[in-house]
Amino acid sequence: MSLKPRLIDSFGRVHNNLRVSVTDRCNLRCVYCMPEQVEFMPRERLLSFEEIARFVAVVAPLGVDKIRLTGGEPLLRKDLDVLVRMLVAIEGVSDVGMTTNGMLLAPIAGRLREAGLERLNISLDTLDSVRFERLARRRGLDDAIAGVHAAKREGFDPIKLNAVVIRGFNEDDVAPLARFARELGVEMRFIEYMPLDAGHLWEREKVFYAQEILDVIAREVAPLAPAADQDPRAPALAYDYLDGGGRVGLISSVSRPFCGSCNRLRLTSDGKLRNCLFALEETDVREMLRSEAPEEAVAQAVAASVAAKWEGHEINTARFIQPDRPMYSIGG
Ligand code: SAM
Ligand code: SF4
Questions:
Q1: What CATH class has 17-330?
Q2: How big, in percent rounded to 5, are the helix, strand and coil portions of the chain?
Q3: Which residues of the chain have pLDDT under 50?
Q4: Which side of the chain, N or C, has fewer Cβ within a 10 Å radius?
């Protein structure tokens, strides 16, 4: 049993997982995430690499051992490999990963791998270039696919492809994406569309549910069964192809919320700590980091945020309130 001090909330959930957004800027404008016209944060409000590393060095002794870099598009932050190197060197950090749209990945993949980045999630919602442009409001499919191949070449492990499925938009991509990932030997994960879009245009009718995704794959790709080595704390439900053709993950935040096993905290690019993706309140740690507040004070603020964490999001109730920050500004 670990004797490390741990970040445990009032529901007994142990928090060991931190998602760090390094920027709110992005080179795409995905309809489920960003508005078409967007005003990004002034650069001086973004945490520096040193401030991020300082924060991680405070939470690592509290049991946070897994870090994931995200954004906005994290690869818009120059020399991200420098940050990776800083984080990997922090005692207690065992795992640094990144979620990216992959468009800028190919040229820097080798440097990131050398710096110690291991896990890579690449978002890819479609293999059709016209649909890509409709979903992302920008061109970029070829660059994103080049990023996927570069990741494979550099030996990132694991590599997961993430697709948000929106009814009426890209449900026809479920089978082609599943086949693409299967042939490449990487896990394909499908994400239910969540109410975190900038325009507050989410509607339940637009959610293409995990069960529907499974049905499409079983019918059009190959039969699946629940994975025997399912990690109960992972957000994705894992299914394996019966013919040994790999794994599919389903992130069913709407139809089967996984709040009961949530182990995540989020640090926004402007230094706000969020204890839930859907949190309505945040803790400002940027000023503490900038004013060189003592480590114990930062640790206390983190512990207080964890202690105040609610039981779970309320998407499926009339009480649900969508947070003001859309996904790109939280860090998905
Ligand atoms: N730009 C990077 C990318 O797209 O991978 C990292 C940031 S993005 C906000 C992280 C993840 O959030 C992506 O996989 C994206 O598809 C997902 N996402 C964004 N908005 C979402 C929404 N409304 N519902 C479900 N997933 C969403
Ligand atoms: Fe950018 Fe990622 Fe949001 Fe798309 S999902 S707009 S790539 S941050």
A1: alpha beta
A2: 35, 20, 45
A3: 1-2
A4: N
